[in-house]
Amino acid sequence: MFEFNDQELESLPLVEAALALNAAIAPSTQAIWVKHQLEQMTADLKDALAAEPNDALRLEGLLRIFYKEWGFQGDNNQHFSSDNTFIDKVLERRQGIPVSLGALLVYFGRMLDLPLSAVAFPTQLVVRADWPGQKPVFVDPFNGEFITERVLRGWLVGHKGPTVQLMDEDMEQSDNATIIGRWLAVIKSAYLREEDYAGALRCSELALWFSPDDPYEIRDRGYIFQQLDCDWVAVNDYEYFIEQCPDDPAAELLKIQVKVLTAQEPTFH
């Protein structure tokens, strides 16, 4: 189980918090190997950029090494693969998605004493650099390119509609708990797409450890139980959601589903 409370979670680098999350979901996660890799890669970065005193140029050097020399890139072919959400797999494959690549980028930046932070932007994770006396600079961790506030607003419009306004809070540094919560949801979605319902169930149970009474997560867990042929357990979760969210459009559909499931013989495992 993920054993960190909020205070401990915030004291960790984001990538280490993510690694702990990965290990809680998949015990086969190569946590020790990852830590060794991060140490070696950090040493290589410091050697390569030791002669560059300018922060902005060191950031450009980090981006060059990370994306060009090391070959990290966004996974355009299997964007929703669960491999893109586990730090050890991302390090092995040199491919990931914004949240995993961004966590690594922020980690290496901090090791270089660069003022980088992670922003849980509504559409994806974005890396932010804060230079003293200047406006913040943003990087898309999917490809390492600098992005403007105009681009961010365009992403937001595509996500929420043409009337939405880009607010300062959309671009502020996010705490680890917020990012880890979204990361967990991404892993669960990936497992569901891959029909790995046992993995999805571990994600759902972990999410409920953070928010034990979340009716939407309990509804999702019910769906997973149903896919695992645990119909009567699924019914309990569906009924909880119906009771807690009677006006949600899904409640009426789930009432029908409950009738179908309770009319069947129970399956025992």
Report Rg.
Answer: 21 Å
Instruction: Enter the CATH topology name of the largest domain.
Output: C8orf32 fold
**Main beta sheet:** 4 strands, antiparallel
Characterize the overall form: globular
Count of all domains: 2
Strand order of the largest sheet: 3-4-5-6
Give the name of the CATH architecture of the largest domain. Roll
How many individual helices? 12
Order of helices and strands: HHHHEHEHEEEEHHHHHH
Q: Roughly what percent helix? A: 55-70%
Q: pLDDT average, as an integer?
A: 94
Given as residue ranges, the uncertain stretches (5+ residues, pLDDT < 50) are none
CATH class of the largest domain: Alpha Beta
N→C terminal distance: 23 Å
Would you give an account of this structure?
This protein is of the alpha+beta class. It has 2 domains: 6-171, C8orf32 fold (Roll); 213-269, no CATH class. Helix content is 59%, strand content 8%. It has 12 helices and 6 strands. It has helices at residues 6-11, 14-25, 31-49, 55-69, 87-93, 98-111, 149-160, 176-193, 197-210, 215-227, 231-244, 249-262, and strands at 73-74, 95-96, 116-120, 125-129, 137-140, 145-147. The protein has a 4-stranded antiparallel sheet. Strand 5 (137-140) and strand 6 form a beta hairpin. It is globular, with a radius of gyration of 21 Å. The two termini are 23 Å apart. The model has no long low-confidence stretch (mean pLDDT 94).
